[in-house]
Design a protein that fits this description.
Helix content is about 70%, strand content about 5%. It is mostly helical.
Length: about 260
C-alpha cells in the first residue's frame, strides 16, 4: 500500500501549482492582448498607407475611396514588411515577455520601435524605391507612431482590467528594458541626425559605429555598405555590462525596501 505524503509536502505541492498557474496566467493574457494590438494596428496602418498612396498616385483611377476599400491589402503588405524587418519580434519582447507596470513605458517603447524599424526599412531600400514612395516615409512614420502608441496604450488598459494578478519583472529584466530603450533612443537620434556634406561612407552607431553606408570610390566604382563587426561586439559587451550593473543596483534597492 502506497504511503501518503505528509501534510507539509501536500501543502507545498499545492502552493507550487497555484504559484505556477498565477505566473502563467498573466503571460497568456499578455500574449492575447499583444496579438489583438497587432491586428488592430495592421488595419489602421493599412488605412494610413492607402491614404498616402492615394495622395501620391498619379493614376486618376486610384481614388481615396478605392484605396480605403482595399485597406486590408495594404495592411497585409505593411505587416509582411514589418515582419521581415523584425518589428514583431521586438514588440513581442517588450509586450509579452517584458511589460512595464507603468502605463507610459510600453507605448513609448512601441512608438520608438516603430519609428526605428520604419527608418531602417527605408534606409535599406535605398535607390530601389521611387521618390513618391520615399516621400511617404515621414508622414507614415509620424502617423504610424501615433497609431501604434494608441494601440499599445489601449492594450495596457485592457490588460490592467482583465488580469488581477500583478506582474512585476525581476530587476535584471527591468534593467534590460531600460538599457535597450536608452541604447535604441541614442542610436535613433544618431541615425536621424542632420546630413552634413556627402553621405557616402557615413557611419552609424553609438557608442561604437556598427554600420557604414556605401558610396562611390573614384566616382564610378560603387562600394556597398557593410556592418562593422568589431563595433557590434563592443556595443553588445557594453550593453551586457550595463544591464548587469543596473540589475544589481535595482536588486539592491529593492532588497532594502
Amino acid at each position: 500500500m502506497a504511503r501518503k505524503p505528509p501534510p507539509e509536502r501536500v501543502s507545498e505541492n499545492v502552493l507550487f501549482l497555484a504559484s505556477s498557474a498565477v505566473a502563467n496566467a498573466p503571460l497568456l493574457k499578455r500574449l492575447t492582448v499583444w496579438l489583438l494590438e497587432r491586428l488592430i494596428e495592421v488595419c489602421l496602418l493599412g488605412g494610413l498607407f492607402a491614404y498616402l498612396v492615394s495622395l501620391s498616385a498619379k493614376d486618376p483611377t486610384l481614388t481615396l475611396r478605392n484605396a480605403f476599400s482595399a485597406f486590408w491589402v495594404y495592411g497585409s503588405v505593411v505587416a509582411v514588411v514589418l515582419f521581415l524587418n523584425g518589428y514583431y519580434v521586438t514588440t513581442a519582447l517588450f509586450g509579452v515577455i517584458w511589460r512595464g507596470t507603468r502605463a507610459w513605458i510600453y507605448p513609448a517603447i512601441t512608438l520608438f520601435l516603430f519609428v526605428l524599424h520604419t527608418h531602417i526599412i527605408f534606409m535599406y531600400a535605398g535607390p530601389d524605391i521611387t521618390p513618391e514612395v520615399r516621400a511617404m516615409q515621414l508622414p507614415f512614420a509620424f502617423g504610424g507612431s501615433g497609431i501604434v502608441s494608441l494601440c499599445a496604450f489601449a492594450g495596457s488598459r485592457v490588460l490592467a482590467k482583465w488580469t488581477s494578478v500583478p506582474f512585476e519583472p525581476n530587476a535584471y529584466l527591468n534593467a534590460l528594458g531600460v538599457i535597450v530603450l536608452l541604447f535604441g533612443l541614442s542610436n535613433a537620434a544618431h541615425f536621424l541626425r542632420p546630413v552634413v556634406g556627402n553621405t557616402a561612407f557615413r557611419a552609424y552607431g553609438l557608442p561604437f559605429a556598427f554600420y557604414r553606408e556605401g558610396g562611390f570610390v573614384r566616382e564610378w566604382v560603387w562600394k556597398p555598405g557593410e556592418f562593422l563587426w568589431i563595433g557590434i561586439a563592443a556595443d553588445l559587451a557594453i550593453v551586457a555590462v550595463s544591464i548587469l550593473l543596473l540589475g544589481r543596483m535595482l536588486f539592491a534597492v529593492r532588497s532594502e525596501h
